[in-house]
Every structure is written in structure tokens, then in C-alpha cells.
TrEMBL record:
Organism field: Pedobacter cryoconitis
Keywords assigned: Activator, DNA-binding, Transcription, Transcription regulation
Alphabetized SMART domains for the sequence: HTH_ARAC (SM00342)
SUPFAM superfamilies for this protein: Homeodomain-like, Regulatory protein AraC
Protein name per the record: AraC-like DNA-binding protein
Origin: domain of life: Bacteria
Domain HTH araC/xylS-type: 163-266
Keyword Cytoplasm assigned: no
Length: 270
């Protein structure tokens, strides 16, 4: 089985940054088939454009733009890429980085497909930071520490301790294209709980209120669509459920600290 060293990925790496314990790469995937392999460091893979299928010993993930995977070190997996342009953003964390902040390197165990939209929005902010002049390493470290805290479940109830209705709700919100249009009573009916219980308990299991979570999902979807220049801001706003383009731009600036067009320009920096 192949072992990939720090900064190595299957494809054409257009950017590589070494930031004191972090190795950050921006890679175009060019191999249609990648056999079983593992990496020597724990790392995140954030799909910026295109599609890829990834399998490990437990699961298979069909990923598209905006999907985020985490692999602990030496977790074996394989990949299949369909035709078309596919681009991934990777952050490798070596042991020195974990030691510097007194973090355990097994905060996240195994290979997982991270669903929380707040984490994906954090990753988009980290990506943007690596494309700007004068990279703020301390800010990237801070965001990664927060990201790991949320992803590991230390800020709210861990996945394994959540009741079944929470899992059903998460699936519904992420897989139904127009879930933001559902009323509270309809959501509650679909998952089999009382609306008041859903409203009161939501933040316990998701780390924020329902309204904020739905906004995060809409922004996450919008960020994935921005990579394609053919998608106008008006079209993105409509597809993601924003009232209009102005509302989309305001929400985007509040979360990503820049305009959608400024982010689109950063996406073109390899």
C-alpha cells in the first residue's frame, strides 16, 4: 500500500504552503482511479470543485463541491474520479502542531464525512485566508482549533449520543433541496417530535438555533456554486433560498467577511 508523504496528493498541486506544523495544498485531481493508500499526517480534504468518490474500510462517500472529509493519520482509503475538473484543498496537521496547542491527535477518530455547515463555512474562511497577501498564520491556527473543537463534538452533544430524531432531522435538512421552506410544525411532523421540543432542543444537538443552521446551509451551498463563473449572483441567490441578491450579499459578507465577487476572485488563485 502506498504511503504519501507530507504535501503529496494524486494530481497537480498548484499551491503548497508550509505554515509551522501545517501543510496546505491546492490540488487538481487528475487520476480517474487511485488505489488504496494512506497519508503520514492527519488531514482535511475540502472539495472546492467537481466530484470524487472516496471509500475507506467502513464507508463510501460521494463528494461534490463543499464536501469536507477528515482522515486521521494512516487511515487507508481509495478514490474514483469521474470525468471533469475536480479540485481539492487540503490541510495536513503534523504532530508538532498538535503538541504546540496541547491537543490530542485523536480528537477526531478514523475517516469521517463532516456534515456541520458551520465547519464548512470555517473551512471556506481558512481557504480565503491562504489566498490573500500577508497570510495570518495565527488566525488560521485559531480557526483550525475552533474547527477541531466543533468537529470533535466537544462544544455540543457528540454524534453517538444523539437521539434518532436528530439524525433524521440532519438528513432532512441537508438532503431536501427546499428544506428552508418547511415550517417548524412540518419539520417536527416529518421526524416525529413535538414542535416545541424541536425548537427547544435544537441548539443542544446542533450548536445554534434552527434559523442560524438553515442560513449556514444556504451559504455553504452558495459558496460551492460560486466556483462556476456561469452562475450569476442572482441565480445563486434564488437557488439557495435567499430573498434576493442584496440579501445574499449581506449574509455572505457577514459570514465570510468579503463580498461574493471578491471570494470568486480568490477562488481563481491556485
Amino acid at each position: 500500500m502506498n504511503t504519501l508523504k507530507t504535501g503529496q496528493f494524486y494530481g497537480t498541486t498548484n499551491q503548497i504552503l508550509q505554515l509551522d506544523g501545517l501543510t496546505i495544498t491546492d490540488t487538481e485531481y487528475t487520476h480517474p482511479v487511485v488505489d488504496w493508500h494512506y497519508h503520514e499526517n492527519a488531514y482535511f480534504t475540502f472539495l472546492l470543485q467537481g466530484n470524487v468518490m472516496e471509500g475507506n474500510k467502513k464507508e463510501v462517500y460521494h463528494c461534490s463541491a463543499g464536501d469536507l472529509l477528515f482522515h486521521n493519520w494512516q487511515d487507508a482509503h481509495y478514490n474514483r474520479k469521474p470525468k471533469g475538473f475536480t479540485r481539492g484543498f487540503h490541510i495536513e496537521l503534523n504532530q508538532d502542531w498538535f503538541d504546540r496547542y496541547d491537543l490530542k491527535n485523536n480528537l477526531i477518530e478514523g475517516s469521517i464525512n463532516i456534515q456541520q455547515p458551520v465547519i464548512k463555512l470555517m473551512m471556506y474562511r481558512i481557504f480565503a485566508a491562504t489566498k490573500q497577501d500577508g497570510i495570518a498564520v495565527a488566525a488560521i491556527d485559531s480557526q483550525l482549533i475552533e474547527l477541531l473543537s466543533v468537529a470533535s463534538g466537544s462544544t455540543f452533544v457528540k454524534t453517538k449520543d444523539r437521539p434518532q430524531w436528530v439524525k433524521l432531522l440532519e438528513q432532512l435538512l441537508h438532503e431536501e433541496p427546499n428544506s428552508y421552506l418547511f415550517s417548524l410544525s412540518e419539520l417536527a411532523h416529518r421526524i416525529g417530535v413535538h414542535p416545541i421540543h424541536l425548537s427547544r432542543a435544537f441548539s443542544i444537538y446542533f450548536g445554534c438555533n434552527l434559523g442560524d443552521y438553515l442560513r449556514q446551509i444556504k451559504l455553504q451551498k452558495a459558496l460551492g456554486l460560486l466556483a462556476n463563473d456561469n452562475n450569476t449572483l442572482i441565480a445563486i441567490a434564488a437557488e439557495c433560498g435567499f430573498a434576493d441578491q442584496s440579501h445574499f450579499i449581506r449574509s455572505f459578507k457577514l459570514n465570510q467577511r468579503m463580498t461574493p465577487l471578491a471570494f470568486r476572485k480568490l477562488m481563481k488563485r491556485c
